[in-house]
Amino acid sequence: MDGANATPANVSSSQNASDRDPRGDIPVVHWAIMTISLLGFVENGILLWFLCFRMRRNPFTVYITHLSIADISLLLCIFVLSVDYAFQMELASGSYTTLTLPVTFLFGHNAGLYLLTAISVERCLSVLCPIWYRCRRPKHQSACVCALLWALSCLATAMEYVKCIDRGELGPSRGDCRAVMVFVGVLSFLVFTPLMLLSSTVLVVKVRRSAWASHSSKLYLVITVTVVVFLICAVPMRLLYLLHYEYWAAFRKLHRISLLFSTINSSANPFIYFFVGSSRKKRFKESLKVVLTRAFKDDAQPGRQDKGGTAAATETVL
């Protein structure tokens, strides 16, 4: 396989039959990828259903909803690739694998990075500029930001796919691919990742010094743990994905590990929300709605009184 045509999204499905392991000798890590991706898909599906139909929305549940959609798309892609590899279903011969799966994989990965950065930055602003957040913040800001980030993810993914993965009969241009690698690398590692890291660090420092931190500790902890897991599992793997285009031979044997870490990252978020939001004394005894409501409660956002007398804020999901 030509190095310029290889991505982790189509590695497992685009190898020739002679390159595949025998059906009875599939690596354990591959079965782990298939199992975790399926469980993560189900978890994020349940989470998405609760966020859309069972819970009152606030600015951060809007972001979490979109982040869950990105994780679902990536996990579905990985699961299909895993099934194709494990059972030799020859999906690689169809347009679904050669077009849809690489695009879906890259799209979900990019969107996850952008959305998680937006969550960290907005929460940081709510601490640094509480008056603006409570009084001046546009009502539909979360939905508008999500729409812009999806559009940016679509642009970055389209460029990466067209210039580095598939250009039809002409084949990918090495010069064009390198230019796209630089653009995506700068966007991911010099803009969004540092912004996420800086805002999360400022958030943690400010909250630990704040007298009212205990009122919203669950949401801060959710954001912090989610960012840490993303930085450990997803950011190094994204760098590895970019290096695949230029140094495929050197990184070929690491593609299963990269897929495993990406799968863990996208599957971990529902677990984080559950364990952070649940009470230690009542863990596994409370309803999922109560746990998620506690995890995503935003005390910094002004709300209106509902019939039960509790404050809540709503925002449209775009």
From TrEMBL:
Family assignment from sequence similarity: Belongs to the G-protein coupled receptor 1 family.
Highest taxon of the lineage: Eukaryota
One Pfam family from the record: 7tm_1
Subcellular location: Cell membrane
Organism of provenance: Galemys pyrenaicus
Gene3D superfamilies associated with the record: Rhodopsin 7-helix transmembrane proteins
Name under which the protein is recorded: Proto-oncogene Mas
Membrane topology annotation: Multi-pass membrane protein
Keywords, comma-separated and alphabetical: Cell membrane, G-protein coupled receptor, Glycoprotein, Membrane, Receptor, Transducer, Transmembrane, Transmembrane helix
